[in-house]
UniProtKB/TrEMBL annotation:
It comes from Parvularcula marina. This is Glycerophosphodiester phosphodiesterase. GO terms for biological process: lipid metabolic process. Residues 48-332 form the GP-PDE domain. GO terms for molecular function: phosphoric diester hydrolase activity. Pfam families: GDPD (PF03009). It comes from the Bacteria.
């Protein structure tokens, strides 16, 4: 009897292995694509990082003069190999959207106050590089180099007729989503350049009302997919929570996905979902770690044909082409 039970268990294990064996799955056959987070920008120490940390005051010693979320940064990112650029937006008091990361202007610029409580005209007077320092305030290497460079979303779309962009909503304001959707509806020529949206659920849901089928992701949706797939993915079926979605998966946790890498990617592709492979999440880090160095890039499966998220497109773009890292466009 025990031998029959043992044989039965082995058969079950073999069946599970066969269903989830990546070696038996065919590669998607597409090249990996790059999402450049904030464009080419200055990275910083993530040690002790919180949502209130002014990251401009902890940058590493500058190797270039590009400033995040600006037109020159985006141009250099596409030149370095970006397929999609992630950018951050805030509504302004005079009916525009400004491309800027922080909730307030105080950290990075010579302005002050909550970003969405300022007008575009005021923001256009500011120096986008004012607050950056790598030595605790001894020097400010970008000061004076970003005056008037914080763009509106309209300027970005007009500057890159062939670019694709992932929009990050910085609040959970439903009106923000409605205003963004209205802008996109008013400019149908921009629709194909809008790769997707992410952030808080509120504005995303408002945007989807006007733009159904748009790629999106937010934490509740990602958690729902992860939970459902962890419980049922061993059957090789894709749960509803993971269908027609954009899935952001940390490379540190990817091996936990049933069928990773080939079988998992094949299932999600067949279910209409895109995969974004993120960097390795550290304990307590509220940011968005990326695949930012050759060592982490080497952990991306050769067969992977989805998207990788990076903070260092100037390194990762050339590396994917087998080229040496360069500062795309050089120093400004």
């Amino acid at each position: 009897m025990w031998s029959r039970i043992g044989i039965g268990l082995l058969m079950i294990i073999a069946a599970l292995w066969t269903r989830n064996a990546s070696l038996l799955a065919k590669p998607i056959g597409e090249d990996v694509k790059i999402i450049a987070h904030r464009g080419i920008h200055h990275t910083y120490s993530r040690e002790g990082l919180t949502n209130q940390t002014c990251t401009a005051t902890r940058i590493f010693p500058p190797e270039h003069d590009f400033i995040e979320n600006t037109i020159p940064s985006f141009e250099a990112s596409f030149a370095a190999g970006a397929d999609v650029i992630e950018l951050d937006i805030h509504p302004t008091t005079d009916g525009h959207f400004v491309v800027f990361h922080d909730w307030t202007l105080d950290c990075r610029t010579d302005g002050e106050g909550v970003t969405r409580r300022a007008s575009l005209d005021y923001i256009k007077t500011l120096d986008a590089g004012y607050g950056y320092t790598a030595d605790g305030g001894e020097t400010f290497p970008l000061r004076g180099k970003g005056v008037g460079m914080i763009p509106s979303l309209t300027e970005v779309f007009e500057a890159f007729p062939d670019g694709q962009f992932l929009i990050n909503f910085k609040s959970n304001d439903l009106e923000e989503g409605a205003a963004f959707a209205a802008l996109m509806v008013a400019h149908p020529e921009w629709r194909e350049r809008l790769w997707g949206v992410y952030g808080a659920p509120g504005p995303i849901e408002e945007t989807l009302k006007a733009l159904p089928g748009l790629r999106y992701f937010h934490k509740p949706a990602l958690k729902a997919c992860a939970k459902s797939y962890l419980l049922t993915g061993w059957t090789a079926n894709v749960p509803a929570d993971c269908r027609n979605r954009t899935l952001a998966l940390p490379i540190s946790h990817a091996r936990l996905a049933w069928g990773w890498p080939r079988a998992f990617e094949a299932r999600m592709t067949a279910a209409g979902s895109d995969i974004i492979l993120m960097g390795e999440y550290g304990s307590g880090d509220p940011g968005t770690p990326g695949i930012d160095d050759p060592e982490t890039l080497a952990r991306v499966p050769d067969s992977f044909g989805g998207y990788i998220w990076t903070n260092r497109v100037e390194i990762i773009g050339p590396a994917l082409k087998g080229e040496d890292a360069v500062w795309a466009g050089g120093r400004q």
